[in-house]
Design a protein that fits this description.
Blueprint: H1 3-12, E1 20-26, E2 30-36, H2 43-61, H3 69-72, E3 78-80, H4 85-92, E4 96-101, E5 107-111, H5 140-150, E6 156-163, E7 169-176, H6 182-195, H7 205-212, E8 224-226, H8 229-236, E9 241-245, E10 251-254, H9 272-302, H10 309-318, H11 326-346, H12 349-369, H13 375-388, H14 394-414, H15 416-432, E11 434-435, E12 438-439, H16 449-456
Antiparallel strand pairs: 1-2, 2-4, 3-5, 4-5, 6-7, 7-9, 8-10, 9-10, 11-12
């Protein structure tokens, strides 16, 4: 090893406090130099194996010949053919030790990686009632192990890709070769391969979803994000693929449809009747969450003659003395509820729940007593917000909030015609979306009669695992 090569390495990492160089003296004025990251390596492994092996190699060979020196070592030493910055970065920051000997013009690498990671625990994004409590974590190797425990068959394949020129993030693709459509598999493989060197960083699943999806500016999520390995298994064995990202405690599942977003991981662990009722209830709640406030505004603002007289009298009585118009009152109540919900997300769980409940009660009651809002408006807005809380996907919940405001605005402007226009616009927009070649409204549009029942309901397990037909008829 020439002095220039050693000086080059030292100069390259002189500003990196987490990279150290350690000189190991040997007899006859020879030495070995180790470069490694203490925060990413097992120091005990280095002291127990690497250092004694360096001394043993010196006693065996005198470190005078470069031929086959790595085969004489009892530990796995890999020769480094070039000392480019990309090569040494990939080795050092993945937990390898770079070893150089003063008498040899060669460097070797030894894998002593020990990354900081946490143990598997219950995911905090999906409540597990009867299902398993072990959730996916930030380590992609740990997640591979969890998923392989659920799918111990060779037909379920795990492939890895490196994405990001700066972060070099490892991304795992998981699929069942017997169930997945060949065209779908070729499509996602091509997208991941093309993405590899096009971006500098990859740090989130949402970022990857936008980069590989056909509609990066979609209001609706085109993949499902989950932290449950059992749900990943259920989806993979039904012809879908999953993507896990190193550093992200969850998995992306695609292709999906709108009706699949209404399913929960817990459905698998309940009776098919209970699960079917829950899915229908969430579908109804989705419609209520989006359209109920707009429908109420259109009805009370433009079509009072369509309201039963006792109900109309109650609404008029409660609005006596209210200084705001009906649309402005609805915007105020919805904004208050969204603010409380956002505060509940950002604060610690116990404090957030307390603030949301107590704050909502106190401020809501005070606003009614002060004559700023009417009780009927609070009821409508609260019903819409609670209905939106039944949805599993947090991304879908955010989309529902945006669509709710849009429906209220159009209904306040055009009345019932505006309300119907908002419904029509949403339907047209949904039909334009697709998730990796699968229509977002499948199996309703285009209609696939044999898949509709399975999409809306859960059938008895005796009927076996079912792969939807629309996954095989991708556009």
């Amino acid at each position: 090893m020439t002095t220039d090569a050693l000086d080059t390495l030292k100069a390259r990492y002189r500003h990196n406090a987490d990279v150290i160089s350690d000189l190991v003296p040997l007899p006859d004025r020879t030495s070995a130099t180790l470069f490694f990251c203490p925060s990413l390596c097992d120091i005990q492994l280095i002291n127990r194996l690497v250092l004694p092996q360096i001394r043993e190699l010196y006693h065996q060979t005198g470190l005078e010949k470069t031929e086959n020196i790595e085969y004489r070592a009892s530990i796995r030493l890999r020769p480094i053919k070039e000392l480019s910055a990309s090569t040494t970065d990939a080795l050092l920051f993945k937990g390898n030790v770079i070893i150089g000997f003063s008498q040899l013009n060669m460097f070797f690498a030894f894998n002593a990686a020990q990354f900081p990671e946490r143990q598997t625990e219950e995911t905090n994004i999906e409540v597990s009632i009867r299902g398993p409590k072990n959730g996916l974590v930030e380590s992609i190797e740990t997640n591979f192990g969890l998923l392989r425990r659920y799918m111990p068959v060779h037909t379920v394949s795990f492939e890895t890709y490196i994405i990001g020129t700066k972060t070099a993030t490892k991304v795992g693709l998981i699929f069942d070769s017997e169930k997945i459509s060949p065209s779908l598999l070729a499509d996602i493989r091509g997208r991941l391969e093309r993405l590899g060197g096009q971006i500098e960083e990859l740090i989130s699943s949402t970022q990857l979803e936008e980069l590989i999806s056909d509609t990066p500016f979609s209001l609706f999520p085109l993949t499902i994000y989950t932290g449950r390995p059992d749900f990943v298994t259920s989806c993979v064995l039904r012809g879908r693929f999953a993507i896990v990202i190193d550093g992200v405690p969850g998995a992306m599942i695609a292709p999906i449809s709108l009706l699949m977003l209404l399913k929960t991981p817990e459905d698998t662990h309940f009776n098919f009747l209970s699960a079917s009722f829950g899915q229908l209830l969430r579908l109804f709640s989705l419609l209520v969450a989006i359209f109920l406030p707009g429908f109420y505004i259109a009805l009370t603002g433009y079509h009072q003659d369509q309201i039963p007289f006792p109900l109309l009298a109650t609404i008029v009585t409660t609005r006596i003395g209210i200084p705001l118009s009906t649309p402005m009152e609805m915007f105020l109540v919805l904004t208050l509820l969204e603010t409380f919900k956002e505060a509940g997300y950002r604060l610690p769980s116990m404090i957030g729940q307390t603030l949301t409940v107590v704050g909502g009660l106190i401020i809501g009651d005070a606003a009614i007593r002060a004559g700023l809002i009417s009780p009927s408006m609070v009821v409508i807005a609260a019903m819409s917000t609670v209905a939106g809380s039944t949805l599993v996907s947090q991304t879908l919940s955010g989309t529902v909030s945006i669509l709710r405001y849009s429906s209220v605005f159009i209904s306040a402007t055009l009345g019932m015609y505006g309300f119907m226009l908002s419904v029509l616009i949403l339907l047209v927009y949904l039909t334009s979306l697709n998730s990796f070649g699968v229509s977002f409204l499948a199996p309703l549009a285009p209609i696939t009669p044999k898949d509709i029942g399975r999409a809306l309901l859960m059938f008895p397990r005796k009927l076996g695992t079912y792969v939807p037909r629309y996954l095989k008829k991708r556009s």
